[in-house]
Amino acid sequence: MDGYRAFRQQKNILVVDDNEDMRYLLGQVLEKAGYRAIFAENGRISLIQAQLYHPVLILMDLSLPDLSGWEAVAQLRQMDGFGETPIIAVTAHISSDEVERARAAGCSAHIGKPFDSVVLLRTMARLLHSH
């Protein structure tokens, strides 16, 4: 891969959420922070978008139509190139059992909705730095 394409891909963040307003909000936060947001509105599309854009990090809602976030994360973890990709669950599922279920599926971190954009960006920076 040439250097220009590698540089452009290094800031791709995949945002997976079935709510259009949430995708828009997350996209605005990411773009202001210098990232390029790629979007998917369900779990199946997230798998396709991940393969097409090779994001450096994925923000995953867990309650999705078609293929749940938990299932999408588990499938991503089995795909070549996504075993170590940071995945943050950004979800209204905030009970300790649901946080543990997200981690068991392969999520690197968990942020409850409504989210604080500063916390989200700090969590992303920490995961990207350690990755």
**End-to-end CA span:** 20 Å
Residue fraction in strands:
15-25%
Largest sheet: 5 strands, parallel
Please tell me the overall pLDDT. Answer: 91
Q: Give start-end ranges of low-pLDDT stretches.
A: 1-8
How many structural units, i.e. domains? 1
Q: Mind telling me which CATH architecture this is?
A: 3-Layer(aba) Sandwich
Strand count: 5
Shape: globular
The order of strands across the largest sheet is 2-1-3-4-5
Number of helices: 6
What would the CATH topology be? Rossmann fold
* Fraction in helix: 40-55%
Tell me what the structure shows:
The protein is of the alpha/beta class and 131 residues long. The chain has one domain (3-130): Response regulator (Rossmann fold, 3-Layer(aba) Sandwich), CATH 3.40.50. It is built from 6 helices and 5 strands; from the N terminus they run αβαβαβαβαβα. It has helices at residues 3-9, 20-32, 43-53, 69-78, 96-105, 117-130, and strands at 12-16, 36-40, 57-60, 87-91, 109-112. A 5-stranded parallel β-sheet has the order 2-1-3-4-5, with helices on both faces. Helix 3 (43-53) packs parallel to helix 4. The chain is globular, with a radius of gyration of 13 Å.
